[in-house]
Amino acid sequence: EKGMYPYYMLKEIDEQPAVLRRIVQQYQNSAGELEIPNELKQAVEAADRIHIVACGTSYHAGWLGKHFLEKMAGIPTEVHIASEFSYNPPLIKGNPLFVFISQSGETADSRQVLVKVKEWGYPTLTITNVQGSTLSREANHTLLLHAGPEIAVASTKAYTAQISVLAILAATLSEEKDFALIHELGIVANAMDSIIAEKEQIAELAEAYLTDKRSAFYIGRGLDYYVSMEAALKLKEISYVQTEGFAAGELKHGTIALIEEGTPVIALITQAENASHTRGNIEEVRSRGAHTCVCVMEGLQQESDQLVLPAVHPMLTPLLAVVPTQLLAYYATLQRGFDVDKPRNLAKSVTVE
Ligand code: F6R
C-alpha cells in the first residue's frame, strides 16, 4: 500500500535507508558478523572468475558488483547484458560462477542465459528480491534483497539493495577484515536519510534544470560513471527526457557535439582521485553552453556546487549518489505531467525476450 504517498516510486525511494538497515540485519550472524550461506561461500571460493548477467537497472548494479568482487575479494569479474550474451558469449576457461541479478527473478532475457549456463554445467547464483521466483528456483544458490515489494516500474530500492548485497557478498570473501562494512553501511543509511529529508531542494533543482528540456546528460568517472548510467536510465524512462549517462572523459570524443545552449549536464563527483578531471570536463561543456549541475561528496565541494552529499566510504558512494538522481527523475516527471509509476511502453517484469 502506498498510504500517504502520491506514488509508489516516492515511497520506495524513501524506504531505502530502512531497506539497507534490514539487509545488514539479515546478513548478520549471531556474532554480529556478515555471513553468507556456507555452500555459497564455497562455490564462490572455488570460482576463478565471475560472470554477472542482468538487464537494465540490475545490469547497472552489476558493474558495482564487479568493482566490489575485484577490489574486496580479488576475483576477476565480467558483466554481461543478458540479451547480448548468446551473440557474444564469454570465453570460458577454468571454473566460472555465473551470477544473475534480477529484482523480479522473472526476466526472460536473464532466464534464457541461466538455462544455457545450466546446460553447460556451471554453478549459478541468483540475487533477487523475490523468493521462489523462477531465477531463484532454477539457480544453485540465491541471495535475497529483502527490499520488500517494488511496485513502481522504475527500480529504485532494488538497485541500492542489489549494490548492498553485492558489497556484502564481496566483503564476506575478503581476506582483509579492516573494512568494517556493517559500520560503513550504517553511515550510508543515515546519509540517505538526510538527503531524503531535503528532497524539496532536489524538487527545485528538477524545476530549474529539467522541466522544458528534450535531452540531458549525466557524467562521472569510475564509480560515478556507473551511477551516471543508472541515473540516466531513471530520468529517461519516466520523464521522457532523452538522457545519456557518460564517462566524463569520453564526452569530448564525439558526444560533446550535442551540447547546446542550456543542455543540462549533471556531474557526479564522489571520488577524490578523479574530482579534478571531472571538473575539467564540466568546464568543457559549460563553455559550450551547458547548464551544469554538480552533485558532489562533502570534502570535495566547491562553493558553486548545487548539491553536496554527506561523506561516506569512497567505495559505497554509489548507494548515496543515486538517491538524488532518483528524486530528480521523480520530480522532473511530476513537473512534466507524466505518470511516475507507470511510464508508457514499459512493464514491471519483462517476460518476453
Ligand atoms: C529500470 C528497470 C528495468 C529492470 C530490468 C530488469 O528502472 O526497472 O531496467 O531493471 O527490466 O528487471 P529485473 O531486475 O526484474 O530482472
From TrEMBL:
One of its GO terms (molecular function) is carbohydrate derivative binding. It is found in: Cytoplasm. It catalyses: D-fructose 6-phosphate + L-glutamine = D-glucosamine 6-phosphate + L-glutamate. Keywords: Aminotransferase, Cytoplasm, Glutamine amidotransferase, Repeat, Transferase. One of its GO terms (cellular component) is cytosol. Catalyzes the first step in hexosamine metabolism, converting fructose-6P into glucosamine-6P using glutamine as a nitrogen source. The keyword Plastid does not apply. Homodimer. Its EC number is 2.6.1.16. The active site is at K348 (for fru-6p isomerization activity). Residues 40-179, 205-343 form the SIS domain. GO terms for biological process: carbohydrate metabolic process; fructose 6-phosphate metabolic process; protein N-linked glycosylation; UDP-N-acetylglucosamine metabolic process. The keyword Transcription does not apply. This is Glutamine--fructose-6-phosphate aminotransferase [isomerizing].
